[in-house]
Write a structure and sequence with these properties.
- The chain has 100 residues and is mainly beta.
- It has one domain: Jelly Rolls (Sandwich).
- The protein is built from no helices and nine strands.
- The protein is globular.
Length: 100
């Protein structure tokens, strides 16, 4: 589910994915995050899930549009069951996990 985020959200963590012609994954959504913001330097396709693989038919994110999605985070501070973001396309993809 994508939406425009018009309210303030606390940043939990942020990372860059070096996306290429093959699917590349982010780290897991950390405990406490409920939203992910994805911004990119060039058009990419993404997938979200426990172990996602991005394909050319995935959700497209263009460089002019940051996108926000609801995400399932780690269930506790020591858990490793949070969802990840995968991207494909030649770009730097910024993934920011937010509490919202």
């Amino acid at each position: 589910m994508a939406y425009q985020n018009s309210m303030a959200s606390r940043i939990v963590s942020s990372e860059n994915i070096a996306s290429t012609g093959t699917s590349a994954q982010s780290g897991r959504a950390p405990f406490g995050s409920t939203i992910v913001r994805i911004a990119t330097s060039a058009a990419v396709n993404i997938a979200i899930g426990p172990n996602p693989t991005a394909t050319a038919t995935g959700t497209r994110i263009d460089p002019a549009d940051a996108a926000y999605f609801v995400i399932r985070s780690d269930s506790s501070p020591s858990a490793t069951d949070g969802e990840k973001i995968a991207s494909i396309g030649t770009a730097t993809v910024n993934v920011t996990f937010l509490e919202g």
